[in-house]
Write a structure and sequence with these properties.
Layout lengths: L2 H22 E3 L3 E4 L6 H8 L13 H18 L4 E5 L5 E12 L2 E10 L8 H16 L4 E6 L4 H10 L2 E8 L2 E9 L6
Antiparallel strand pairs: 1-2, 2-3, 3-4, 4-5, 6-8, 7-8
Helix pairs in contact: 2-3, 4-5
Bound molecules: coenzyme A.
């Protein structure tokens, strides 16, 4: 490799290391997000299987929670970013999972901003607060042109979070065998 190419590669690697370091933790006024660890398993299972979550119980079993954590750990390992484990500042209790993740929507690669919080803390604006950071990271650090979010038509709370963040409805789709609504947010720099 020539000097210029080698310098370019070294620069790209350094930039990627910086991005990974800067994305591993995130803080807001009331919350902290950190890279997930295997020890988050019990919190994932507790939050996923809570009977107050309106989604059918058979779609959010303990096995689903563990698989989601395993996939989230693998996502971080591969990409250097992913959904954070969310803690409340102060008592540092784990209250959920929020952040950007690679996904496929109707066969196309996309990055979604995902959120799932402990029912004890719903309605305080927490999902919106940390998802703001996920959007910022997606546009500023990952340099994406747009991100998506999707949920079932009945999930009004999730759609309210999307709208508050500025996402707009794009299409009715099928995802995981169920009807979903797909929303998109375009980066300021990519808007025409
Ligand atoms: C969706 C979820 C992450 C929202 O978290 P949250 O911290 O309560 O969200 P916020 O407080 O930031 O915002 C909630 C919004 O939904 C609204 N909302 C809450 N419950 C609602 C309901 N049953 N019907 C309609 N709107 C509702 C709130 O009024 C608020 O909207 P507003 O800001 O316009 O007033 C949380 O409810 C959750 O984890 N649900 C279970 C998992 C889930 O459904 N995840 C999304 C899968 S796509």
């Amino acid at each position: 490799m020539g000097g210029r190419a080698a310098r370019h590669a070294a620069h790209a690697e350094a930039a990627s290391v910086t991005a990974v370091q800067s994305l591993a933790t995130v803080s807001t006024e009331r919350l902290r997000g950190r890279r997930p660890v295997a020890e988050d398993r019990a919190d994932y299972v507790r939050i996923w299987t809570d009977p107050r979550v309106p989604t059918d119980a058979h779609l959010r079993t303990a096995e689903d929670a563990v698989r989601t954590l395993d996939e989230t750990l693998a996502h971080w390992e591969r990409w250097g970013f992913g959904p954070w484990t969310v803690l409340e500042r102060g008592d540092e209790a784990v209250i959920g999972r929020v952040g950007p993740a690679h996904t496929r929507v109707t066969g196309r690669p996309e990055v979604e901003v995902a959120w799932f919080l402990d029912a004890d803390v719903w309605g305080r604006g927490y999902a919106t607060e940390l998802a703001h950071e996920a959007v910022r990271a997606a546009f500023d650090d990952l340099q994406l042109d747009s991100v998506v979010s999707y949920t079932t038509p009945a999930n009004a709370a999730s759609q309210a979070v999307m709208r508050r963040l500025g996402f707009t409805f794009e299409a009715a789709i099928e995802h995981a065998g169920l009807p979903h609504v797909l929303f998109r947010l375009t980066a300021p720099a990519a808007r025409g």
